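Hey,
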Amino acid sequence: MSYFFLKNFWIYGYLGPNVLLIIVKQIKNLLITHNSKAMKNFHFPSTIQPSSHCNLRISQRGISDEAVKIVISYGDIIHKQRLKFHFLTKSRCHKLNIPIELVRDLMVITNLDRTEVVTCYKNPNAIHEVKKKSKRLGRTPKYLKQNRQIIHEFKTRQIA
């Protein structure tokens, strides 16, 4: 159904002008959501199971299951430390007509395969902090461990 098709309906008296505007807005919203980056990465939330830790944290922090599913479905993703960090920006909420209060500052962490929600939390600076994280989980190199042992032995000799 195109805009011109609907316009012809309006001209011939089948639709009123208000109905036409509502339908055109709905079509534009559908086009925005289907062309967005989030829809390319869409993954059904029903296949994602929360871990026991996530269930505990959701109940403690008062986060709804619906909010978690919305963030996973339509949110942006940051890949860090073999995890996926999902979040929704304010502009994306406005485009998708999602109430901002529901998902404001919500960060949902899933495993790499997106089969399990590890945890979720609310933090206004979460996106900034996640971007600062290292790409991989840190492992201390062998030479640093040896240096620590040498420094520890040196300090114990000085004390004695």
